[in-house]
Amino acid sequence: MVPLVSVTSLPSRSARRGTIPEATVARLPVYLRVLTGFAESGVATVSSETLAQAAGVGPAKLRKDLSHLGSYGTRGVGYDVEFLVYQISRALGLTQHYSVVIVGVGNLGHALAGYAGFGSRGFGVVALLDADPARVGETIAGIEVRHVDDLEAIVAEHEVSIGVIATPASAAQDVCDRLVACGVTSVLNFAPVVLNVPEQVDVRKVDLSIELQILAFHEQRKALVGTGS
Amino acid sequence: MVPLVSVTSLPSRSARRGTIPEATVARLPVYLRVLTGFAESGVATVSSETLAQAAGVGPAKLRKDLSHLGSYGTRGVGYDVEFLVYQISRALGLTQHYSVVIVGVGNLGHALAGYAGFGSRGFGVVALLDADPARVGETIAGIEVRHVDDLEAIVAEHEVSIGVIATPASAAQDVCDRLVACGVTSVLNFAPVVLNVPEQVDVRKVDLSIELQILAFHEQRKALVGTGS
DNA sequence: ACCATTTTGTGCACGTGTTCACAATCGGGC
DNA sequence: GCCCGATTGTGAACACGTGCACAAAATGGT
Q1: Which neighbouring-strand residues pair with A188?
Q2: Does residue B71 reach within 7 angstroms of strand D, measured from its CB?
Q3: DSSP three-state, residue B220
Q4: Which residues pair with B202 in a beta bridge?
Q5: Looking at CA atoms only, how far is residue B51 from chain A in angstroms?
Q6: Phi and psi of B130, rounded to 5°?
Q7: Cα A99 vs. chain centroid, distance in angstroms?
Q8: For residue range B40-65, what is the model confidence (pLDDT) as tens digits?
Q9: Which of A114, A204, B168, B182 stands 20 to 30 A from B207 (CA)?
Q10: How does strand A143-147 pair with strand A45-46?
Q11: Do residues A164 and A141 touch, judged by C-beta distance below 8 A?
Q12: Which of A60, A53, A73, A61 is nearest to A27 (CA)?
């Protein structure tokens, strides 16, 4: 009889140090923020239990997440806060600098320009772009508003790697195409459209109305508890 | 010998009509938006292929998603656009009305108040709340700004079920506690903190800086292609 | 009436993510 | 030097999500 024991044990492309699961990557920024808070409070070490509680996850998940970046942490003691902050920052690539442009200076673009975390920790907003000539020249949160026609020039000059789209839906795909055309490889999209991009570019979408609709679904579900149908 | 054929086939709690996987729920709003666009263009029916392309997912995934709400769709033909819009709306609970309050009228609160999709499709923003007395009385996007002290009264009066937190991080937990205390069971949080809520309340978090950090990670990964370490 | 074509709905296998439980390991007291 | 309590790191089982591939079903032409 042929041994059917399954082939699942061969390390297809995991097991390489440096390969961090996507779900873990999404949680690392939360750990980082919580740890920064601890550091500012003068806490030197934390246990997985404490850190997990503060981050709103289970202790086991947290330990597995951290184990993907290496064996920092001391058995019987916990994790050194400052060391862990550094290791997570490095894993996320925050030890490098990324130039960001924000396209669209409506209400949302305005909010993003002033958002803490956009100007700090490795990120720098080099320009705000808008199609409305009336807005050009204005200065918001210390950043000058330029016309969207200058997009290509600005991206080239500052070696922008991340583009934030905060335009109306109708302009989003066009702006995205232009960003991609001049070498931007990461896009954060706030417009309520599905963007079409080539393979190597990755897009993250933040859609406020989608979040609301998901909440509505759960709200409805809670409402019909104990109902037959 | 005991039959070891695995017990995985008993319908633990799936298989109940009305049980929609979380991942599917998160995609339904996208399908809904795309379908609405098709409807406005006068398209009567769509195939899973067409719809999937427009929504940025694979055809198989789309069909499986839709199959969770029932067998709408005709073999050999496709899906009736208007009928599907209705079915998805119903599944998401959008045939009901949800009153929303937005707390925090900074840049972000401002943006949210004007956001299309917050005032439409089953959602209604009944008030904007802020702690700053100077802002009270102002009218933004047709909605009056009230003082945050009136939170309890407003929630009770309008039977608010969804609260949006757009305050600074320091105020978020306090506002959240007050919302929960007067019966709000769904919270959309834009403040960069992990909120502590009781079991039955669900929170969705939108964190702009986290999205940026995730992009930074992938950006870094793309940068060291072909590098040894 | 029948067949070819199209497209849905879904069983199945696979990969990813989560949770449990425990061995490995550290610091500290005596 | 040794034992004990504490805490990490991880193997293994389980749950969840995804994609393939195909049977089921509907339309339209002849």
Answers
A1: A164, A204
A2: no
A3: helix
A4: B186
A5: 12
A6: -150, 155
A7: 15
A8: 999 999 999 999 999 999 999 999 99
A9: B182
A10: unpaired
A11: no
A12: A61
